[in-house]
Amino acid sequence: MAQADIALIGLAVMGQNLILNMNDHGFVVCAYNRTVAKVERFLANEAKGTKVIGGTSLEDMVSKLKKPRRVMMLVKAGKAVDDFIDLLVPLLEAGDIIIDGGNSEYTDSNRRCESLRAKGLLFVGSGVSGGEDGARYGPSLMPGGAPEAWPAIKPIFQGIAAKIGKEPCCDWVGENGAGHYVKMVHNGIEYGDMQLICEAYDLMKNALGMNHDEMASVFTEWNKGELDSFLIEITKDILAFKDTDGSPLVEKIRDAAGQKGTGKWTAISALDKGMPVTLIGESVFARCLSSLKDERVEASKQLPGPKVTRWEGNRAELVEHIRKALYASKIISYAQGFMLLKQAAKDYGWNLNYGGIALMWRGGCIIRSRFLGNIKEAFDKNPKLTNLLMDDFFKKAILDCQESWRKVVAAAVTLGVPTPCFSTALAFFDGYRSERVPANLIQAQRDYFGAHTYELLTEPGKFIHTNWTGHGGNVSSSSYNA
What we know:
Blueprint: E1 6-9, H1 13-24, E2 29-32, H2 36-44, E3 53-54, H3 58-63, E4 70-73, H4 79-88, E5 97-100, H5 106-118, E6 122-129, H6 131-137, E7 140-145, H7 150-160, E8 163-164, E9 167-168, E10 174-175, H8 178-207, H9 212-222, H10 230-240, H11 262-272, H12 278-290, H13 293-302, H14 315-348, H15 354-360, H16 371-381, H17 392-415, H18 420-432, H19 439-450, E11 454-456, E12 459-464
Parallel strand pairs: 1-2, 1-4, 2-3, 4-5, 5-6, 7-10
Antiparallel strand pairs: 6-7, 8-9, 11-12
Helix pairs in contact: 1-6, 8-11, 8-12, 8-14, 9-10, 11-12, 12-18, 14-17, 14-18, 15-16
């Protein structure tokens, strides 16, 4: 007999926690896993005493679902998702809904949405952020896909999502792969936030010689102000954490960062769309450089840096400059992320609610922070805002931080401390605020060696070629790249 409101496939920790979250909010969930013994163990242990039921097979699971049937998957991205979809399609009817809550690439979600629509089924690709704790007690959810599916999943998704006041950190994002695209950009911004915090830590540790308790205290103070966020909060906990011998555990961890690929996807998409999302790109490259551990160890013996590597000025002043540089760089990162979202919306015909996206990220997710409330206000005030830097709040904030930001980047360069994201953020700011950049020379060079043409300032839209050498001819290029 149909009794379950939704089925969830995949009983790793995220899947189990989402099921228990749904149960807490009054929804009956049918749990299924390819290894059926895992379902039995879950029902006998974590889900004991709840209304959660199990499916012994996909057929059994589907038979227990109310119509329209809602089936959510939390399985490994890629082939596993397609395999489950192929198995589910023959068991479902027109109007039933398949939800992919994994970290899928948005291009896959675009394809799946179109393919299932042709079969009469509704597909939703939803970003889910917040880790294990968020899944259990309130994640940030970013659903996109077939808009007709939203009314049927809205009560469940908004019920289990994190709340800011009474507002759920979940709303409909847009068509096709929009949900997974927004999650991808979220993860890219996460890469940037983490790298910026690491650069602040590196400066305090190596340029100022601060100990870990002192650094933990600084991050504790920072978390009381405009930098208040989940990542700042966990950083102060990490820096204060001692190993069994009483020494800081963080210093025993190998300095080679891993990555799952979502930051890389964001950087690739930015390049494809011609958007200068430099900070996220640099944060991905910083992880790549970190992975060259053995090479760096050897290089450190052969490539000496500056003779002076310690800050000789006022320590408290530099700490405050670092705080402001971190805040300014963070503003740049989010400004670039929303630039990419706006271009994707234009390219794919998505109607994205940027203030709504900021609210979705305001709680439950890894980049949750006070800062996102200001972004929501900016887009609520002006839904057609071209760039966050043009909003009065962010304009004032970044100009207030500018002097400190420049001092930090200059100090880092002088002392030989790598700050790729602080530096690229400042370079972007200076480029964005420049009425003229030296791209006119690039255009002349391109025309010189490849007859690629250029526009004159006085005649925009009209492309001309110059015979720079007197023997190059007057035919311009339109069919090759040199």
